[in-house]
């Protein structure tokens, strides 16, 4: 289990070094925060007037004792005839331990920070621009910072461990959503969740917990999803991650022109690799040491063609290359470069040319300063926040409880898989639709791992159509790639229109 946790933390370390979570507030029951400002912008040719609120909701235990203060930023369109029926979308990032400012300043809010493609952003000042891809013309938006991130904190005698875990986190966000709906009279609004990375794990858990609170969702948007963690953990003796990661290796090698014979088109190439991954490659891995020499040689030839790695390297790796190994090896002899984990289009210099693993993520270091500076500037100027507390972009929310409370029957818990939560939510609410949004160059939560997970939810044929898919030629945070923003908005607009009645 210790080995699993260590590998899992490596797999999810998608943000800069963590900052300790805010200390517990001294008072047991503070007055909720509220900074509200009024704004107007043009979205898709129309003027959208809206209120922006930086606020908080107090979470309480069974005795109504205050245990946490969860902060949010809400964008609510004004001038709406029946606000109670207007769609509302709750959104958050992942981590676990990440605040929501990545999605917020990348694609969800009315403003976004402009970054220079796959290059490292220059130091301040950064450009904060109108976000033409915001969904504010279609839905009100609530950006949530879970306990230990942003300004959100425990209260009184409550401890972080009450909120830091798969189910603990789900329960706290469920209560937040319930209280928000009540305080703002939004119970009859079409309701959506949009999470990124671990935020998709959170959404799957929430889909079930919210139903338990008599809240049916209209739709869930899973951005760079991970529901079944077996697809990320390259555990000894477990082959699923090697199968589900292979198409992302192929996409990365294709992008960097590292293939022996690069096909002209990416999409048909990936279809070919996906078929190989779940067919001959999976069969070969399952055979283990019984794989015949001739079959092994054929598999090696295909892996060379699909990954751009050398035959000797693949042979020594016993046909199994983890994502951190691939990031370090692909361009090792091509200028000593490592490819990005969050977005494989980004390149960085290797610190150690002999290292087995990349050791750093070029994309994270390229954009983090820009996002932090832009958010803190926007927060204190346009949103009017004049408090004294510092915003925590990445909180120290560990140890995180990965146990669902039910073991495997052998006295220990298994690797988390919240796919069954989502599947049960769809069975219970056959009108619930899910949109899977993938970045093809994402090595943190590989696109085919998410697709494979959806194909293994065990849903009947008539409910499998409830799950849609949109692939983008970008990375984990696909909105960093500005050219995809028009299609992002078009895709999500259509999803909201279809599932909300077009209100």
Describe what this molecule looks like in 3D:
This protein is α/β, with parallel strands linked by helices and 503 residues long. It folds into two domains: 2-230 and 368-500, 3-Layer(aba) Sandwich (Rossmann fold), CATH 3.40.50.1820; 235-363, no CATH class. 35% of the residues lie in helices and 18% in strands. It contains 14 helices and 14 strands. It has helices at 2-12, 101-108, 166-183, 198-212, 240-255, 266-287, 293-307, 311-316, 323-329, 362-380, 419-428, 447-454, 461-464, 485-500, and strands at residues 34-43, 46-60, 66-77, 88-92, 111-114, 127-130, 140-145, 153-154, 191-197, 219-225, 337-339, 347-349, 433-439, 467-472. The strands form three sheets. Strands 1, 2, 3, 4, 7, 8, 9, 10, 13 and 14 form a ten-stranded mixed β-sheet that branches. Strands 5-6 form a two-stranded antiparallel sheet. The protein has a two-stranded antiparallel sheet with strand order 11-12. A hairpin with a 2-residue loop joins strand 1 and strand 2 (46-60). Helix 4 (198-212) packs parallel to helix 11 (419-428). The longest helix has 22 residues, at 266-287. The radius of gyration is 23 Å and the shape is globular. The N and C termini lie far apart (48 Å). The relative contact order is 0.16. Residues 1-27 and 407-411 have low confidence and may be disordered.
N-to-C order of helices and strands = HEEEEHEEEEHEHEHHHHHEEHHEHHEH
Indicate the radius of gyration in whole angstroms.
23 Å
What's the name of the CATH homologous superfamily of the largest domain? Alpha/Beta hydrolase fold, catalytic domain
How many domains in all?
2
Q: What global shape is seen?
A: globular
**CATH topology group of the largest domain:** Rossmann fold
The portion of residues assigned to helices is 25-40%
Q: Which structural class should the secondary elements be placed in?
A: alpha/beta
Compute the average pLDDT. Answer: 92
CATH class of the largest domain: Alpha Beta
The largest sheet, given as strand count, sense and whether it forms a barrel, is:
10 strands, mixed
Task: Tell me which CATH architecture of the largest domain applies here.
Answer: 3-Layer(aba) Sandwich
Strand proportion: 15-25%
